[in-house]
Amino acid sequence: MQHSNSLLALTVASMITAGTAAAHAAEAPEGKEKCTGIVKAGMNDCGTSQHACSGMAKTDNDPEEWIYLPKGTCNKITDGKVKS
């Protein structure tokens, strides 16, 4: 029984750590912005509601997929939208 409790505690701790890392990953680096709608398939920078990893975009120009660009660049690109 003690082994099961230890395993459960480790699992919960791992989930909390992963959640914290995901929250930090959601913030754009300084001088960058998230730009949606312009990403080529397989070239996205991070996850969406459909997947959790970079490089998993299945189609070009998916409005949910995004990449980091220097601030002020996204609005200069056709169909580019800054994700807040």
TrEMBL record:
The keyword Signal applies. Residues 1-25 form the signal peptide. It comes from the Bacteria. Keywords: Signal. InterPro entries: DUF2282_membr. This is Uncharacterized protein. It comes from Oceanococcus atlanticus.
